[in-house]
Structures are given as C-alpha cells and as structure tokens.
Amino acid sequence: MSEVAVRIAREAADLARTVRDRAVTDGVDTKSTETDVVTMGDRAVERLVRERLAELRPGESVLGEEEGGDGALDGLRWVVDPIDGTVNYLYGFPFYAVSLAAQVDGRSVAGAVVEPVSGRVWSAAAGHGAFLDGKPLHVSGADRLDLALVGTGFAYAVERRTAQARVVNDLLGQVRDIRRAGAASLDLCSVAAGWLDATYEVGLNRWDWAAGALIAQEAGAALRLPEKGSSDGLGDEMLVCATPGIAEGLTGALRAADAGEV
Asked: Which key words are in the record (predicted)?
C-alpha cells in the first residue's frame, strides 16, 4: 500500500504542477469562508487519485477533501488531500503537497506526501519507518521546550484564528520560535525530518494529517491525534506532534494556554 500511495501521489503532484497556472486564474472558488479557497487543480487532482485507486485498488473506499466519501472508520479506506496548502498553491508559495494515506479502522498504515515544486517524496508504512526520497528519517533530539522550533496553523474562521493567535502569544515566550507555513501535512513531515521540533493545530480534518502523522510517528515523534471524548484537557480537535524530549512540556504549555478551547 505504501508503494501504491507513492506512485499515485507522484502522478497527482505532477498534475497539480502542470495545471497550476490555469487552475489559479480560471478555476478558483471558495468554501467555508472567502479565505478558504478551492481551485480547479484541487478537483482535478482528487479525480485523478480516485481514478488511479479504482484501477490499482478496485473496490476500496476513498475519503477526499473535495468529493467527500464514507465517514465510517471500519475497514480499509484511502484518505486524500489533493492539494494541502491550497492558499500557497494559489499564490505560488512553493509549500504545498499531495497527501495520500491508507487507513485501517481509522489508523494510518501507509502514506505518502509529495511536493509538486521540489519533487520531494515523503513516505511511511506502519512498523517500517519513514523516508524522504528513500532516506530514513528521524526526529530531532530536542529536550528543552525553550529551545524548540514549533510549527502551527490557523483556521479560516476569523473568531477561531483570533483565539489561536492568543495561544501563539502565550507560547512565544516559552519556545525558541514559531513557524506557520500553511500545509499541515508538510509541518508533520518537517517534524519527521527534524526541521521542526514539534507542530500543533486545532481543527484539522482527517485528510490533513492521515499521511503526515504516520510519517512523523514512524520517524519517532510522539503523537496526539484529534479524538472525540478526549479527557486530557486539550479538547477533541487538537493534534500535537513532537519529538519525545519536549512532548510533555509542549502539551502542558498548550493546556495552560487553553489551546484546545479555541
């Protein structure tokens, strides 16, 4: 399944890159807010992924950002974000990716994240490690929160992103610095590579993290995924991914900042 994910995500990344100029001029629409964009490229890429999965993995369920799908977690299901970082894609900021994962009973078992601009291929299979262009990945050895570089992201709704900014304000005095690059899958991959020591975000959808979270976890990251009925003080929608040496400190700081309540 990891080989299938890489193969299809590579093809999809090629398409995203090829159609970008037309997609961002002739085919831009909005979804939840005026800042939440979707392009013809997003739709075309997801259609390609679905077509290729139907050929290579016939009969298997697919959940995608643009066309939806079965919400049940039971059994095998592919989860696709055709272009993670669509706003970046729209502006030509080269930090966006195609993300594809296979999940069994809601747990990621294989995944790939491919960057159309750089061509980088991130991949993982449960129990078999994580890789960047075939080279093994491992998280950083950071063990001090005050020296940690931490990624995050913001919601499209103004009220929620304003509350998220207050959390960042609380954290800035406790970490080395904050990064916000606009693609959750690549934030997670950056933790896997040691380019970030951690990332956190509230309100992500399954397609945002299904592949990247597996890649980070297989590279040694401590992972806290969104979960309904959570009782750890971080709410149901919080994702936290960190190198183990700072995971406890970061979750404590997020809890103190009421980050799960935004």
From this structure: Hydrolase, Magnesium, Metal-binding
**What is the dihedral angle through the alpha carbons of 148, 154, 159, 160, rounded to the nearest 10 degrees?**
-70
Residue pair 164/202 in contact (Cβ under 8 Å)? The answer is: yes
Other residues' Cβ atoms within 10 Å of the Cβ of residue 11: 17
At 206 the pLDDT is 96
Give the pTM: 0.95
- Which parts of the chain sit beneath pLDDT 50? none
pLDDT at residue 168, as a whole number = 97
User: Torsion angle, CA of 199/241/229/80, rounded to 10 degrees?
Assistant: 80
Annotated binding site: 65, 81, 83-84, 208
64, β-bridge pairs: 68, 80
Domain(s) of CATH 3.40.190.80: residues in the chain: 145-257
185: its two tokens: 């899958």
Q: Which CATH architecture has domain 145-257?
A: 3-Layer(aba) Sandwich (3.40)
Alpha-carbon distance 75 to 87, whole Å? 33
What fold is seen in the domain 1-136?
Answer: Fructose-1,6-Bisphosphatase; Chain A, domain 1 (3.30.540)
Quick one: pLDDT at residue 31? 72
Would you say 160 and 203 are in contact if contact means Cβ atoms under 8 Å apart?
A: yes
Could you list the residues known to form a binding site for Mg(2+), using ranges: 65, 81, 83-84, 208
The rounded distance, in Å, linking the Cα atoms of 204 and 154 is 9
Residue type, 166: R
pLDDT tens-digit map of 138-181: 999 999 999 999 999 999 889 999 999 999 999 999 999 999 99
